[in-house]
């Protein structure tokens, strides 16, 4: 049971009695970052949704709560789970199983009945993608709001390409109601103290992009993560020097000053998984210390939070903000799609596909922003910049803000792929946590519930529940965010929680009489 993921992990069976689910779970621990600490993020959220300051602050708090609720939903065995999204006020969860509705409501979300589960939709997407691969697909994802698969084709090819894809779907026998064809703009990679958002150059790739400007993503043990397309194993990385002009129509940026002999080298690329996933990491040299900070540009220096190990993913419909050396930041948008496959065609006409991307509407990228961090308004790290649709610009000649679709590789993909630990303000310390045990609202005669309400950590974090005394036995998996316990009413029960991270373990014990009252 690791830190929160953006991708779905195998479902665990939660054997909690339905009888205890009539009351909603209270979410008292969710706190959004203080808007006063990130004034430009607040202004961006106000502009993005047309809100006043009070409304924007309320939305950011609701988004933080929805992200935690989504984590708890993913930790539960919902038989018909079909995705989730933030509707501007609360989290909605789709399912094609009526029995899931009580669970969803108990976790504080709104159930939505649909025809197909996420597993069914992903299966259809995989099969159809394989059969349409040579027919001009440039993207695909599951649209959880409308319970269907979306295939993207190049807007420049117009209705002719759409008709080809539609005909092919019909020929292959697919149900047209389960698919949608949408014109879109091809997303291309954005570019060619070690802290997130700062600029770098790749000396090894000095050539067409004149030192391949990119941005640091976030600090990890021994270096930092960035976009995979920013370099390949062994490439030499220097800190940014000089400036460059913004490109037009996705042409390479013009570097006004090449890397100089005295410009500091900070490390070497250790590995890149591009193009399959846009993940890479750089090992920093002695003297260059990775720190759990992000250059927030006009938002100031941002700390990477310890809550949820700093990687709680935002659901569809929530706000995320980007930072990078070329455009600064924050540049905020709304999560529109998860686990997207993005395809563009190289100069030889060969498809180049990248998997698992998150798509954001209303933001932008500029060449040189690649690899830079995305965060939620609450500061949770979301991923690293892949790129956007052309042109790679955030402002026009009149200084007016431009928006397009942008994409990032989820941080969990990169950390998992390389087995690395993202640095947080928690530091190299054992985890800490808060627990409700027993949770009075959900416990009743012969039945107790204990719940982790928050944890603070750095790196992958695991835990295990045990129960003894009073005839106690676990009714749910021992590594869930909450545990359901059967016991003999009135007898003493002892519950232990052991939590581990790469730096140590923390334990706590809870003793209480087994509940002896009427259930909710």
3D structure, described in words:
- The chain is of the alpha+beta class.
- The protein folds into 4 domains: 31-113, no CATH class; 125-184, GMP Synthetase, Chain A, domain 3 (2-Layer Sandwich); 188-418, Trypsin-like serine proteases (Thrombin, subunit H, Beta Barrel); 432-513, Immunoglobulin-like (Sandwich), CATH 2.60.40.
- Helices cover 15% and strands 36% of the residues.
- α1 crosses α2 (53-74).
- Residues 1-32 and 244-249 have low confidence and may be disordered.
Kindly list the characteristics that best describe this protein:
seven-stranded antiparallel beta sheet; alpha+beta; 4 domains; GMP Synthetase, Chain A, domain 3; Thrombin, subunit H; globular
Topology:
Layout: H1 39-49, H2 53-74, E1 81-86, E2 91-95, H3 100-106, E3 110-113, H4 118-132, E4 137-143, E5 148-154, H5 158-171, E6 179-184, E7 187-189, E8 194-196, E9 199-202, E10 214-215, E11 218-220, E12 223-226, E13 236-239, E14 244-245, E15 254-255, E16 265-272, E17 280-284, E18 290-295, E19 301-303, E20 319-324, E21 328-345, E22 351-363, E23 373-375, E24 381-389, E25 404-410, H6 411-418, E26 432-436, E27 447-456, E28 462-468, E29 473-474, E30 482-486, E31 492-501, E32 504-513
Helix pairs in contact: 1-2
Give a quick rundown of the structure.
It contains six helices and 32 strands. It has 520 residues and is of the alpha+beta class. The relative contact order is 0.14.
Q: Kindly identify the CATH topology of the largest domain.
A: Thrombin, subunit H
Class by alpha and beta content: alpha+beta
Q: Estimate percent helicity.
A: 10-25%
Mean pLDDT value:
86
Ends apart, CA distance between termini = 30 Å
List low-confidence stretches. 1-32, 244-249
The total tally of domains equals: 4
């Amino acid at each position: 049971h690791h830190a929160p993921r953006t991708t779905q992990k195998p479902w665990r069976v939660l054997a909690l009695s339905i009888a205890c689910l009539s009351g909603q779970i209270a979410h008292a621990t969710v706190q959004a970052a203080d808007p006063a600490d990130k004034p430009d993020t607040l202004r961006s959220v106000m502009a993005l949704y047309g809100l006043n300051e009070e409304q924007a602050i309320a939305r950011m708090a609701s988004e933080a709560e929805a992200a935690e609720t989504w984590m708890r939903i993913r930790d539960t065995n919902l038989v018909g789970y079909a995705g989730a999204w933030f509707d501007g006020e609360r989290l909605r969860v789709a399912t094609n199983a009526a029995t899931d509705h009580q669970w969803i409501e108990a976790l504080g979300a709104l159930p939505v009945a649909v025809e197909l589960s996420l597993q069914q939709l992903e299966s259809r997407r995989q099969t159809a993608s394989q059969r349409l691969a040579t027919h001009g697909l440039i993207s695909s994802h599951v649209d959880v709001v409308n319970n269907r698969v979306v295939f993207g084709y190049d807007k420049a090819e117009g209705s002719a390409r759409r008709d080809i894809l539609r005909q092919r779907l019909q020929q292959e026998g697919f149900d047209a109601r389960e698919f949608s064809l949408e014109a879109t703009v091809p997303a291309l990679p954005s570019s060619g103290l070690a802290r997130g958002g700062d600029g770098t150059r790749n000396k090894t790739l000095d050539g067409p992009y004149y030192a391949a400007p990119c941005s640091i993503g976030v600090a990890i043990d021994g270096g930092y993560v960035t976009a995979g397309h920013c370099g390949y194993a062994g490439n030499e990385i220097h800190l940014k020097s000089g400036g460059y002009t913004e490109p037009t129509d996705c042409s390479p940026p013009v570097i006004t000053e090449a890397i100089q002999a005295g410009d500091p080298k900070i490390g070497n690329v250790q590995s890149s998984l591009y193009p399959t996933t846009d993940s890479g990491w750089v090992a920093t040299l002695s003297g260059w210390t990775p720190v759990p900070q992000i250059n927030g540009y006009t938002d100031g220096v941002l700390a990477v939070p310890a809550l949820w190990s700093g990687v709680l993913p935002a659901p569809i419909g929530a706000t995320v903000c980007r930072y990078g050396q070329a455009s600064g930041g924050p540049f905020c948008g709304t999560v529109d799609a998860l686990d997207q496959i993005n395809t563009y065609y190289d100069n030889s006409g060969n498809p180049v596909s990248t998997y698992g991307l998150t798509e954001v509407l209303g933001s932008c990228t500029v060449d040189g922003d690649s690899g830079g961090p995305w965060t939620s308004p609450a500061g949770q790290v979301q991923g690293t910049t892949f790129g956007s649709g052309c042109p790679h610009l955030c402002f026009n000649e009149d200084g007016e803000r431009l928006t397009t679709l942008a994409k990032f590789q989820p941080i969990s993909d990169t950390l998992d792929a390389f087995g690395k630990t993202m640095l947080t303000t928690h530091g190299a310390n054992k985890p800490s946590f808060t627990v409700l045990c027993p949770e009075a609202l959900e416990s009743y005669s012969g039945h107790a519930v204990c719940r982790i309400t928050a944890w603070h950590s750095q790196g992958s974090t695991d835990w295990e529940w045990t129960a003894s005394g009073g005839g106690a036995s676990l009714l749910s998996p021992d590594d869930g965010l909450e545990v359901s316990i059967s016991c003999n009413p009135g007898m003493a029960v002892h519950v232990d929680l052991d939590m581990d991270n790469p730096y140590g373990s923390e334990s706590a014990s809870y003793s209480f009489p087994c509940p002896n009252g009427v259930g909710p």
